[in-house]
Amino acid sequence: MDHKAPMYYDFLGIPGLNFNLSTVLMIFISSVVVFVICTLATRKLQMKPTGVQNFMEWIVDFVKGIIGDTMDWKTGKVFLPLGLTLITYIFISNILGVITMVTYGEYLWWKSPTSDAGVTLSLAAMVIILTNFYGIKLHGFKNYGKEYMKPVPFLLPIKILEEFTNTMTLGFRLFGNIFAGEILLTLIAKLAFVLAPVTFVGALIPMMAWQGFSLFIGAIQAFIFTMLTMVYMSHKVSTDH
């Protein structure tokens, strides 16, 4: 069965300004899942953490390590909430479509929101905007602008173009990996019903194997996105890179 993209909603009736309703739904669900996990992890804090709190503290230490590898901790500690938000939200978003896919009628509603290029490029654009914002905030507009003129002024157009290429590569890398994984899972699911139950049994093992691999890819992509965010940030806020 072919899955069609859900209908698009024209925001305020403005032509061209429309939203994929399934993507909006999955963004909301991802946000709720992350909120619930973080709330459970911090609801009853203990000196000797166990369960979800222990796992969350491990994530905090992991993100601290990412920041420490890219910049001085005195400068980078302010970006810890950003790193935690990115790595948890992107990981949850990546695996939602791996766990299952839900269709209603002919439309695919349950999927990974990061399998939509609009979501990943928006995340990437916000990251690049934040890096420039903090660069200006810490160094001042004049001093920050001088960095675009080094080592020679004629590199200015290239450095401006680099901001756009960083956005594209950061967004499309995440989108490509998650979208390709969902496509393969869909193909395996279709194969399972070609000559059911014979093909269903034959497709079960590849399906489980690819779901496991996709969980790994989802974690790796969340790590890469967060790491590159901190690398880009360090280039803007650190005096020595």
Automatic annotation (TrEMBL):
The chain crosses the membrane at residues 20-41, 78-105, 117-136, 183-207, 213-233. The keyword Acetylation does not apply. Keywords: ATP synthesis, Cell membrane, CF(0), Hydrogen ion transport, Ion transport, Membrane, Transmembrane, Transmembrane helix, Transport. It holds the Pfam family ATP-synt_A. Its main location: membrane. It is found in: Cell membrane; Membrane. The keyword Acyltransferase does not apply. It is a multi-pass membrane protein. InterPro entries: ATP_syn_F0_a_bact/chloroplast, ATP_synth_F0_asu, ATP_synth_F0_asu_AS, F0_ATP_A_sf. Coiled coil: none annotated. It comes from the Bacteria. Key component of the proton channel; it plays a direct role in the translocation of protons across the membrane. NCBIfam families: ATP_synt_6_or_A, PRK05815.1-4. Belongs to the ATPase A chain family. This is ATP synthase subunit a. It comes from Aquibacillus rhizosphaerae. The gene is atpB.
